[in-house]
Amino acid sequence: MLTDAQFSDLISRARKGDEQAAQTLVREYEPEIRRAARLRLTDPKLRRIVDSIDICQSVFGRFFKSATDGSFELESPAQLLLLLTTMTRNRIIDEHRRQTTAKRASVEISESVDPEHLVADSPGPRTAAAARELLLEVRSRMTPQELAVADLRGAGKSWDEIATEMNESAEKLRKLLERSLERVRQQLNVVEPS
């Protein structure tokens, strides 16, 4: 957490448009804002449309726009955290209201259009970002030896090639990786797809 002096300096610089100060504030507060957003995004329908990254970006965008106008008088890091979490809550409420009150026009698909062509096979940017975030979390929970085995396997090497390179048995390394992934899966409480 920032000291009051560091905080005052960063806020002052951010108000003047200092990009490094803004980046430092985002780096400092983004984990808390994303956590607050994830805790409040409980509606599955809403989670399909918007995720914590979207909310976080929106909150910081609004904050920095208002901060440069001088709309906020902040004296401590705790005040900023309270403001940002309140903005997060309000942003999610606004998005929920917008989604539940929006009148969706029903679009009839022409019989000449094949519905298969309307849906992309590739994952969207949010799915890709979530996958990268999950991969980083998994890797952070693995030992150096487990990471080495995973990296070699990910590079397309066979178990025999990995065993030769690491001077271990192929079966031992295969089980090492299998057990480490199972351990991390349990730590993260990830349900294995059926």
3D architecture notes:
With 194 residues, this protein is mainly α. It has 2 domains: 4-101, RNA polymerase sigma factor, region 2, helix turn helix motif (Rna Polymerase Sigma Factor, Chain: A, Orthogonal Bundle), CATH 1.10.1740; 126-188, Orthogonal Bundle (Arc Repressor Mutant, subunit A), CATH 1.10.10. The chain has helices at 4-15, 19-40, 44-49, 52-69, 77-101, 125-140, 144-154, 159-166, 170-188.
Throw out a few tags for this protein.
single chain; mainly alpha; Arc Repressor Mutant, subunit A; 2 domains; 9 helices; 0% strand
Main sheet attributes: strand count, strand direction, barrel closure: none
Order of helices and strands: HHHHHHHHH
CATH structural fold name of the largest domain:
Rna Polymerase Sigma Factor, Chain: A
Number of strands: 0
Number of domains: 2
β-strand amount: under 5%
CATH class group of the largest domain: Mainly Alpha
Question: In the CATH classification, which architecture of the largest domain applies?
Answer: Orthogonal Bundle
Classified in CATH, the superfamily of the largest domain is RNA polymerase sigma factor, region 2, helix turn helix motif
Work out the helix count.
9
Structural class based on helices, strands and sheet pairing: mainly alpha
Q: What integer is the average pLDDT?
A: 82
